[in-house]
TrEMBL record:
GO cellular component: cytosol
Organism of origin: Lysinibacillus sphaericus (Bacillus sphaericus)
Catalytic activity: pyridoxal + ATP = pyridoxal 5'-phosphate + ADP + H(+)
Protein name according to UniProt: pyridoxal kinase
Family: Belongs to the ThiD family.
Length: 272
């Protein structure tokens, strides 16, 4: 069984972060390990929402996984601080991992900051050059590009070209906030591929981005090409959104079981 790693935050509600990644790994048939960078939950008195782990704790997790389990592919999610980003970047320079998926998590579903100010330069300069593929959504792509607004599929393509210059091999810009079909663009520096799936009319999409990048990681670990891994991941997430699990107080989560329930041939993803 191929072995995967997620380096990300733990989401107490279970729909995103480490929890979403491990569910995705399990559903797609790879063995998942995790290095938790922070815990995301709201304290009832202080209202604090992010509790980062010490660098020693994160380093110990990475060391244990690399030396005792092995890693065929990994992804990063919420790293939050400049120091954590630099720790992970330095560690990546010491290990041999064929595929690295960077999900540049910056904002929560309702706009909550999931990366502290001052960490952007470390993300760009130190982490992204390690990436096989980076997977920003529209707000993250806009932030990485200095506030440039994305309002169309053409804008997604322009953003992918600009983001590719940061050093990653592939860029996947996710256009979930556009009108019409759920459109993403995949760019390798030469070829631009547009992916479209049916748009599901729901607010219950918590964990969709985390699960998308985790599904790509699983596919790459199983020796799919980047394009094949992205296609499979888009089907996986679309199925999960279609079977979303609603919560009463907040937006609900995608159902990670749905891909097996519906089967990959039931979700149509067109490629242009």
């Amino acid at each position: 069984m191929k072995k995967t790693l997620t380096i990300a935050g733990s989401a107490a509600r279970g729909g995103a972060g480490i929890q979403a990644d491990l569910k995705t790994f399990q559903e797609l048939g790879v063995y998942g390990t995790s290095a938790i960078t922070a815990f995301v939950a709201t304290h009832p008195r202080t209202n604090q929402g992010v509790f980062t782990q010490s660098l020693d704790v994160i380093e110990a997790q990475l060391h244990t996984i690399a030396t005792q389990i092995g890693i065929d592919a990994l992804k990063t999610g919420m790293l939050f601080t400049k120091d954590i980003i630099e720790l992970v970047s330095d560690w990546l320079s010491t290990v041999q991992v064929k595929h690295v998926v960077i999900d540049p998590v910056m904002f929560g579903k309702v706009g909550t900051a999931l990366m502290e100010e001052g960490a952007m330069s470390s993300l760009k300069d130190k982490l992204l050059p390690h990436a096989t593929i980076m997977t920003p959504n529209m707000p993250e792509a806009e932030y990485l590009l200095g506030g440039k607004k994305l309002t169309s599929a053409t804008d997604l393509q322009d953003a992918a070209r600009d983001l590719h210059k940061l050093g990653t091999q592939f860029v996947l810009v996710k256009g979930g906030r556009l009108d019409g079909p759920a459109t993403d663009v995949l760019y390798d520096g030469v070829r631009m591929v547009t992916l479209e799936a049916p748009r599901i009319d729901t607010i219950h999409t918590n964990g969709a981005g985390c699960s998308y990048s985790a599904a790509i990681t699983a596919g790459l670990a199983q020796d799919l090409s980047v394009e094949e891994a992205v296609m499979q991941a888009k089907k996986f997430v679309t199925a999960g959104i279609r079977r979303a699990i609603p919560f009463e107080a907040v937006a609900g989560a995608i159902d990670h079981r749905a891909y097996k329930v519906f089967g990959e041939h039931d979700i149509t993803v067109t490629r242009n």
